[in-house]
């Protein structure tokens, strides 16, 4: 079967999920690739409807072993219309638990036909220079993502219709484990000497939790601890304060030191 357009849908506050999907798209090489970056609140306000000849490639970071809960409304409005779907979970070298299964279940409920799934490793949102996942996805991960794209292309070219595709099996259990509630925590330290009030932190925040005029003002109720503001600050003015997020960083650095590799399900 022919796919002319790949719709790359990603939620990717710190850019690792997006990088993996872009690698996939290079390998799949459709006529047209459209990026639907649902990290941005304005993009999340518009529902996506898939049409004939289109394929959904959806990637989310794993948050507490789950699909990030704030995507619930957007995902509930997705109209799959029988389009093939590739599901990608990107996690920070701890575990992806049931997140890939949850993503697969969601897209099937929305009328897509899951044809492939994968779990990739991205630099952990809470990373520092001692974190094992630093710099991932790296060259080897990106080559893997491109090869994954080529494999999915081959799979689809080998069939006349999606009726020939069997049930996609991915790891995970029902009911899902993990947690959908994130910490409600004041964890960002801003160095006022370094901050130039450039406003980039407010621009990259996926939930509009940072004041556009004063980056030191953060709404903790809205904040999802994604660390996009910390990682994108050109002055290095933002960091993780002592507290639960810093403690989680310590656990990640001491417990998850063995490099994990991407996994494919086709
Ligand atoms: C709130 C939160 C929860 C997370 N939970 C997990 C987890 O359960 N397992 C894991 O390995 N990584 C976890 N991570 C790390 C992210 O999945 C990982 O860094 C991912 O690459 C971030 O994707 P992005 O760059 O597209 O934002 C978590 C990150 C955040 C912010």
Automatic annotation (TrEMBL):
<dbReference type="InterPro" id="IPR017896">
    <property type="entry name" value="4Fe4S_Fe-S-bd"/>
</dbReference>
<keyword id="KW-0408">Iron</keyword>
<dbReference type="InterPro" id="IPR047964">
    <property type="entry name" value="EFR1-like"/>
</dbReference>
<dbReference type="Pfam" id="PF00037">
    <property type="entry name" value="Fer4"/>
</dbReference>
<dbReference type="InterPro" id="IPR008254">
    <property type="entry name" value="Flavodoxin/NO_synth"/>
</dbReference>
<dbReference type="InterPro" id="IPR050572">
    <property type="entry name" value="Fe-S_Ferredoxin"/>
</dbReference>
<keyword id="KW-0249">Electron transport</keyword>
<feature type="domain" description="Flavodoxin-like">
    <location>
        <begin position="6"/>
        <end position="153"/>
    </location>
</feature>
<dbReference type="GO" id="GO:0046872">
    <property type="term" value="F:metal ion binding"/>
</dbReference>
<keyword id="KW-0411">Iron-sulfur</keyword>
<dbReference type="GO" id="GO:0010181">
    <property type="term" value="F:FMN binding"/>
</dbReference>
<feature type="domain" description="4Fe-4S ferredoxin-type">
    <location>
        <begin position="186"/>
        <end position="215"/>
    </location>
</feature>
<dbReference type="GO" id="GO:0051539">
    <property type="term" value="F:4 iron, 4 sulfur cluster binding"/>
</dbReference>
<dbReference type="InterPro" id="IPR017900">
    <property type="entry name" value="4Fe4S_Fe_S_CS"/>
</dbReference>
<feature type="domain" description="4Fe-4S ferredoxin-type">
    <location>
        <begin position="217"/>
        <end position="243"/>
    </location>
</feature>
<protein>
    <submittedName>
        <fullName>4Fe-4S dicluster domain-containing protein</fullName>
    </submittedName>
</protein>
<keyword id="KW-0813">Transport</keyword>
<keyword id="KW-0479">Metal-binding</keyword>
<keyword id="KW-0677">Repeat</keyword>
<dbReference type="InterPro" id="IPR029039">
    <property type="entry name" value="Flavoprotein-like_sf"/>
</dbReference>
<keyword id="KW-0004">4Fe-4S</keyword>
């Amino acid at each position: 079967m022919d796919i002319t357009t790949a719709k790359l849908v990603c939620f990717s506050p710190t850019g690792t999920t997006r990088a993996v999907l872009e690698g996939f798209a290079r390998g799949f090489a459709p006529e047209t690739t459209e990026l639907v970056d649902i990290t941005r609140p304005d993009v999340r306000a518009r529902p996506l409807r898939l049409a004939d000849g289109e394929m959904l490639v959806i990637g989310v970071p794993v948050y507490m072993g789950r699909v990030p809960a704030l995507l619930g409304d957007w995902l509930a409005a997705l109209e799959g219309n029988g389009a093939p779907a590739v599901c990608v979970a990107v996690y920070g070298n701890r575990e992806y638990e049931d997140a890939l299964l949850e993503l697969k279940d969601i897209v099937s409920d929305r009328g897509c036909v899951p044809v492939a799934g994968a779990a990739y490793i991205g630099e952990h949102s809470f990373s520092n220079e001692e974190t094992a996942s630093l710099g991932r996805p790296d060259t080897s991960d990106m080559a893997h993502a491109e090869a994954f794209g080529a494999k999915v292309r081959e799979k689809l070219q080998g069939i006349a219709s999606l009726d020939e595709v069997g049930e996609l099996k991915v790891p995970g259990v029902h009911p899902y484990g993990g947690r959908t509630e994130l910490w409600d925590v004041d964890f960002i330290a801003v160095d006022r000497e370094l901050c130039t009030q450039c406003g980039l932190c407010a621009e990259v925040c996926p939930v509009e939790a940072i004041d556009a005029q004063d980056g030191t003002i953060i709404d903790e109720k809205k904040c999802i601890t994604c660390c996009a503001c910390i990682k994108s600050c050109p002055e290095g003015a933002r960091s993780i304060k002592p507290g639960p997020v810093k403690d989680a960083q310590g656990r990640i650095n001491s417990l998850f030191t063995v490099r994990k590799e991407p996994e494919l399900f086709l």
